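Meet today's protein:

…
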Amino acid sequence: IQTSLDLDLAVHYRSNGVIVVNYPELDESSYGPHDKYVKLSGFVQEKGIGTVVRMENPWYDGLHYPDGIARRMIDNFKYVLDYCLSHGEELSGKANPTLYLMGFSAGASTIAAVAGDYSQVEKILLMAPSGDAGQKLLERGLSKFKGEVYVTIGDKDEVLHGKHNGTVFYELATAAKIRKLEVIPDCDHKFTGEKNGKIMSKAPLWAFAGDTTFPLPDGGRKLC
């Protein structure tokens, strides 16, 4: 799907009234390296969680980092959420769909800042969440979000300096109905390697479908 905002969207359909929106790292396509997000989204759809909408997270030359980029990421994400809600019947079989949001790094940061503005969002999954959306917006967004918050991060995350940032996101989710944090051993920022990729693929099952075997890689899908 090509939207009027010129954002590239791809859809993995499931008619159960749930839409899962995946927002990747900054400057990543909707496919991801080695088609990582295609495989991840297909796995989530196959498990029956819901329709998965993949979007890109482009870098914009000329915009100041971090403030200008953060505003554009947020605007783009809200545009896609509004699109999903206005096309709920077409995308999910239900005019008023439930939203689950999952994101990686800067995409996860944007989700944390935005989720509290949408009553339709019930669950969010933040994988290796960064601070790209800005501390004030993160504090505002997470403090008002009343759904379920799931955070996972590698203990060797070289970008976020270990588990500290993941812990911050968990602690900011003060209004959450449920909040959980999993720190993955021997895992870097990008969940590199077959084992960590399988663990990453199971994170949505943990957050959205109550999988109690996470973070074990067994039953996960190879992402790269």
Remarks:
- The first strand starts at residue 9 and ends at 12.
- The radius of gyration is 16 Å.
- The helical segments are 36-46, 67-86, 88-92, 106-114, 135-144, 164-172, 194-209.
- DSSP finds seven helices and seven strands in the chain.
